[in-house]
Design brief:
- The protein is α+β, with helices and mostly antiparallel strands and 194 residues long.
- It has a single domain (4-167), classed as Umud Fragment, subunit A.
- The protein is built from 1 helix and 12 strands, in the order H-E-E-E-E-E-E-E-E-E-E-E-E.
- The protein is elongated and about 80 Å long.
- The protein starts with a helix and ends in a 21-residue tail after the last strand.
């Protein structure tokens, strides 16, 4: 007959293994994040719960990412506007954002261009290993235009937002690129001849 200790360990071992696997997945593969505020409206809303993909992820222009922001002492969710080596010009008079001389536009967000002043003198070049991020609701976003945020270091990017899991009425993949196409696709091919 099994001792009480053996019976308890029958329950503890699988629970411990599950916790270890969950910890590894959340650390190296995917992790949750929460949108705080209206800076990503209308793409994302305050309180949206997201899944971030981090395994093998290389940040690209147009991706929505969550990142540590030491200057604000919080995690922020923003869109990558420019990568290292790219030139950013925020034209406050024309209410436009240009990257390497081309206007950076997100389909459906043309009316949300900023007229807010910035402490930077444009154009600016994004330093090596850094990213320039902005919220989609540019009138109400604390982002790389603010000296408390500035450029985001690659090491501070936690992952790319790939899935909204809350609220339940909005569950689904996130449109993640400037051209409206999502580069994070999983496709399953079914061979009808089998």
């Amino acid at each position: 007959m099994d001792s009480l200790f053996d019976r308890i360990m029958e329950w503890v071992r699988p629970a411990l293994k599950t916790c270890i696997v969950a910890l590894l997945v959340c650390t190296f593969v995917a992790r949750p994040a929460r949108v705080s505020g209206s800076s990503m409206f209308p793409t994302l809303a305050d309180g949206d719960e997201l899944i971030l993909w981090s395994l093998g992820y290389t940040p690209e222009q147009g991706d929505i990412v969550a990142c540590n922001c030491p200057g604000l002492n919080e995690i922020i969710v923003k869109r990558i506007v420019a990568k290292e080596g790219q030139s950013v010009y925020v034209d406050i008079g024309e209410r436009r954002v240009y990257v390497d001389g081309e206007e950076f536009v997100i389909d459906g967000l043309e009316d949300l261009i900023t007229d807010r002043e910035s402490p930077y003198r444009y154009p600016i070049t994004v330093p090596e290993g850094m990213y320039f991020v902005m919220g989609d609701n540019r009138q109400h976003s604390t982002d790389s235009r603010d000296e408390r945020v500035g450029f985001i270091d690659r090491e501070d990017i936690l992952g790319k937002a790939v899935l909204r899991i809350f609220p339940f009425s909005s569950v689904g993949p996130i449109r993640n690129t400037a051209d409206g196409r999502d580069r994070f696709k999983i496709s399953i091919r079914i061979d009808k001849n089998r």
